[in-house]
Amino acid sequence: MRSLPLISLSCLVLSTPALALNQSADRAAAQANFKQADGNKDRKLTKAEFRKLIDANAEDNLGKAPMIKRFDAYDTAFARVDTNKDGIITLKELAALRGK
Question: Which residues span the domain enclosing 37?
Fold first, then answer.
């Protein structure tokens, strides 16, 4: 039974992306949360800023953010979103999630 949390975490990471939102109200809330998390207003997120985004989205019950927070899977989610592996998440990388 010990592998169950790992399986759940794998499903979390490989399933629908955290920010792939369908409803316009959810999308607007996620955009507002992004602006709030982006402390230096450069339209990019560091790992610390990404964590703030996930926490805000989890509070609003948006996408997979509640599960990322519950499983403390911030680093795994960050790595999945940061497709070019530069340690920063751009709006382009977030937008690409909606297409998957």
Answer: 3-98
